[in-house]
Amino acid sequence: MESNVSHEDWKTCFAQLAPALLLFARRWTNSRADAEDVVQEAFVRFWRRQHSLENRGLLYAAVRSAALDRLRSEQRRNRREATAALEQVDYCEPIFTPEDEGQGLLAAAVERLPNEQREVVFLKIWNELTFAEIAVALEISPNTAASRYRYALGSLKKILQPHE
């Protein structure tokens, strides 16, 4: 620990190293602003622990640690937001009360679909979501949602098509 380093020494050190630290931090951040926040946070941690200004390797380690902490935090937040969005979707599986034989056959055919396709059909038809909204809800790409829907419709056609 170094106790005789002045405030000006820290400011000078930060001014000299900041550009290189920013470049290093950009490897783990989405924007320059995020990189600047990471460098500032790391430098403050480094300063509070009274590390030697000569120990630049430890300063770079502090930047890396702060950047990875931020990245993990963003990933956790994204997962929480995706879960919250999924919970907010007005999703309900339709309850079929067959009024005629055709509706009963359709209900049985939908139940025979693989779960992944059945989910997309329910969200698309009964909840009127777009493929983009389905993609967010199911954490898949919009193209995957569209493909599952197309495969589901093909399967339903085969199941419901009268045999000749």
Number of beta strands: 0
* Tally of separate helices: 7
CATH topology of the largest domain: Rna Polymerase Sigma Factor, Chain: A
* Total domain count: 2
Q: Which structural class should the secondary elements be placed in?
A: mainly alpha
Helix content: over 70%
First-to-last CA distance: 87 Å
Q: What is the element string, with H for helices and E for strands?
A: HHHHHHH
Strand content: under 5%
Name the poorly predicted regions. Answer: none
What is the C-alpha radius of gyration, as a whole number of Å?
A: 28 Å
Average pLDDT over all residues = 81
Q: Specify the overall morphology.
A: rod-shaped
Largest sheet: none
CATH architecture of the largest domain: Orthogonal Bundle
Specify the CATH class of the largest domain: Mainly Alpha
